[in-house]
Amino acid sequence: MTQTDTKKEPALAIEGLCKEYPKFKLNNVTFSVNEGEICGFVGRNGAGKSTTLKSLLGLVHPSAGNVRFFGLDAREHEREIKQMIGFSGGAVDYYKRKKIKTIVDVTKTFYETWDEDEYRRLLEKFELDEEKTPSELSEGMKVKLNLALALSHRARLLILDEPTSGLDPFSRAEVLDIFRELTKENVTILFSTHIVSDLEKCADRIVFIRKGGIVADETKNDFIGRFSETGNESLEDIVVRLERKGENNE
User: Fold this and answer.
1) What is the CATH number of domain 12-88+156-248?
2) Any residues with CB less than 8 A from the CB of 130 and at least 6 apart, and which?
C-alpha cells in the first residue's frame, strides 16, 4: 500500500514577497502561519507590516513573491479565498452614520457563506446593537463589529492590521480574550501590532519585521529562548533591544 503525505498545508504561506517604493522596500518577506495559531506580526511603525498585509490581500501589488491560503494560490483562487478570510484594517471607519443593520445587509451580499444564525449569535455575544451607527460605538465595540462581520461568513483566517491600536487597556484585554476563544474553534489569526505586550498575552507565533525584512519567524517560546539574554526578559524588552541593536549596526 502506498503511503501518502498527510501533512496539513499552513493556513497562510508567504514566499519571497517584494515591493519597492521610492523610500521603502519590502525585501523577500517569507513566513507561514499554521491553522489555529495566533500569529503576532510585530515591528515598529513603518517596518512593512501594513504593506505586507495589503500585498496578501491584493490591495497592493507586489513585484515578486507567492502567497498561498490553505494550499490555494492567491492569484488563481482569489474568489474562493475571499470567502475564507476576513480582513480588518482597524476599527470601523466607514458609513459612520449608517445603522449597523444597513451595513450588514450590504456586506452579506458579498459572501456565499454568510450565516445569519451565526451573525445573530455574535451580536448577542459581543453585545452589539444593530440599530446603532458606528459613530455611536466605542473603539472596542468597533473592533468587535469588524470581527462579527468576518466571522459571520465563517472566515477561517482573520488578517487584522493593528486591531488593538487606540483601545483602552480593558478593551484590549477583551479583544485578546476573544482571539483566544476563536482559536478553540480552529480560527487562525494573523495580526500586526507594535504593542508587544499584546503578543505576550495571546500569541503562539512571532513574526518580527524590521525595515522591510523578516528578522524572525518562530513560536513565541522559541523566539524568547533564542533572543533573550538574561532568561527573564519580557517579550517587549527583547523586541525593543533588537530594534536598538539593528539601528546601532547600521
Assistant:
1) 3.40.50.300
2) 99, 100, 101, 104, 123
